[in-house]
Request: fold
Amino acid sequence: MIIHRDRSRREQLITALPGGYGQLIGVTRELMGQATATIDILRSRVPGTGSQLEEIGRLEADLVHFARERVSARLLAGPDLVGDSLSGWLPNPPRQLTIRVARLPPLQVLIADRATALVVVGSPAERRASLIKAPEVLQALCTLFESIWRSSAPPDEHLAFGDRDRALLVRQILGAMRAGVTDEVAARELTVSVRTYRRYVAEIMALLGATSRFQAGVRAAELGLLPPAQGGAYRP
Reply:
């Protein structure tokens, strides 16, 4: 009997949502509106067609408008959402919404007041969603969010290898790293702040799986991101 009661209680704390996307939108809107202090959102790109993703993005971005005015909201977005797709998340009039960019696991999470979470995984055709109130699971989700948040970057400071407009900047930073140029000199030559330059360096090292700047430069050359070193020359 005790085991049965514990199982029933746990089932009430983690509830599967078998409905369609409309139900998820309704639950998300309800959580947004009920939050009194904080809303944390983790949103990575889900598999699907361009039209599907565009429509989903518009619907989900609109939901932030239902948050109460004094609620502090944070959005962690995947690198592939940087750009115009994030502009819709900016409330009008402005609210306390902070957006950061980081490499994310393939899931969508909404945490309201650190007390209730909506977790969605899978593609639109195979979507699985759960409403979570179990304290131990919530703690794990909050810890995951905070860990990623600390190493994330604002959208205007995020650097991605796939962005063609920044491809030259990536090569220049990699070249400076391989040549051992100081942060101050490299930042001045590239006309960015030292803080922004160091954030770029940290992200590049993480993407390359490098433990040192020199290793990142060597690894970049191995991958064809940099030409072979010629006398250690560095040209910004």
